[in-house]
Write a structure and sequence with these properties.
The chain contains 9 helices and no strands. The chain is an all-alpha fold and 186 residues long.
């Protein structure tokens, strides 16, 4: 089943305004498998993925009135809920909440110039703290924000912005390279 952004936004609106079970079922049928796939890629068991996917979709039902198309794309909004549900679960399971770094959120195996997932996260966090990101081009800032702050995959960001996947990957590589250079200058 394929649903366009407008149709997805309309479903969220119906859920928020009318508490439409029919709209929620349609939304659930569309996003539940995507949530499962995303969580499975994070290395969680099928049982945990099913539980977290259902929990995330319940949050969508409850928070539907907070969705604003002016603030975020419906895919971004939903995957933020799914990602945050995953992080909540991981934090509860971990004795060290700071150790939670999810490789599927910050690492793309096609970026060969970076040493590790931890290094990417550290570079991004340090750059964000030092406001170096504002020195990057707008395209590079946008791709970093979409991928590292909103939790989009490279493919989701490319689809959302209607740009080639290779362009997204190139922008990420260049942005990280530029951030490294800026940090070395300090």
């Amino acid at each position: 089943m394929q649903l366009g952004l407008t149709e997805l936004e309309n479903l969220i609106r119906e859920i928020a305004q009318e508490k439409s079970r029919h709209a929620f079922k349609k939304l659930f049928d569309f996003y539940y498998p995507k949530a499962m796939n995303y969580l499975l890629k994070a290395g969680l068991s099928k049982e945990v993925c099913a539980e977290l996917s259902q929990e995330a979709m319940l949050k969508v039902w409850k928070k539907s009135s907070s969705y604003s198309p002016e603030l975020a794309n419906v895919n971004t909004w939903l995957f933020t809920i799914i990602r945050n549900t995953k992080y909540d679960y991981l934090r509860k399971q971990s004795r060290d909440p700071l150790a939670i770094i999810s490789a599927d959120d910050v690492f793309d195996e096609n970026i060969h110039t970076l040493d590790s997932t931890h290094e990417i996260e550290e570079i991004y966090q340090r750059a964000q703290t030092q406001e170096m990101i504002t020195k990057l081009s707008q395209d590079q800032q946008d791709v970093l924000y979409g991928i590292y702050r909103e939790g989009l995959t490279h493919s989701e960001f490319a689809h959302m912005r209607d740009i080639p996947l290779g362009t997204v990957k190139s922008r990420v590589r260049l942005a990280i390279k530029n951030l490294k250079l800026l940090m070395e200058e300090k």
